[in-house]
Amino acid sequence: MQIKPLRKDLKKILQKHSLKKKYQKQKSLFEKNPYHPSLNTEKLRPKKLNIYSFRLNRKWRAIFIITNNKVEVVDIKLHYH
């Protein structure tokens, strides 16, 4: 499943927190296998909203939605915030 290019504001978050390289690695894993164990892909609550996340590292998560079989990262957040 392919991930759409990131918005500028999300790229700035990656750059600010030195996550660009990690994001690229996790993005590549996700596109090959969205449920790769190191991604910890999960559906967020409330489940009816169909919002998901995958792990960038132990602290950071990429929050995404799926539309027309394409993935769009809508936020990059600290875990449990």
What CATH calls the topology is: YaeB-like fold
Reported for the largest beta sheet, the result is: 4 strands, antiparallel
Task: Calculate Rg over CA atoms.
Answer: 12 Å
Question: CATH superfamily membership, which one?
Answer: RelE-like
Termini separation comes to 27 Å
Q: Count of helices?
A: 2
Flag low-confidence runs: none
The count of β-strands is 4
Which strand order does the major sheet show?
Answer: 1-2-3-4
Global mean pLDDT: 96
Count of domains: 1
Which word captures the global form? Answer: globular
Helix content: 25-40%
Q: How big a fraction of the residues is strand?
A: 25-35%
Architecture per CATH nomenclature, i.e. the level-2 architecture: 2-Layer Sandwich
The ordered string of helix (H) and strand (E) elements is HHEEEE
Task: Explain what the structure shows.
- Helices cover 27% and strands 28% of the residues.
- With 81 residues, it is α+β, with helices and mostly antiparallel strands.
- The protein has one domain: YaeB-like fold (2-Layer Sandwich).
- Strand 3 and strand 4 form a beta hairpin.
Search tags:
YaeB-like fold, single chain, four-stranded antiparallel β-sheet, 81 residues, alpha+beta, 2 helices, 4 strands, globular
Quick structural overview:
With 81 residues, the protein is an alpha+beta fold. It is built from 2 helices and 4 strands, in the order ααββββ. The chain has a 4-stranded antiparallel beta sheet with strand order 1-2-3-4.
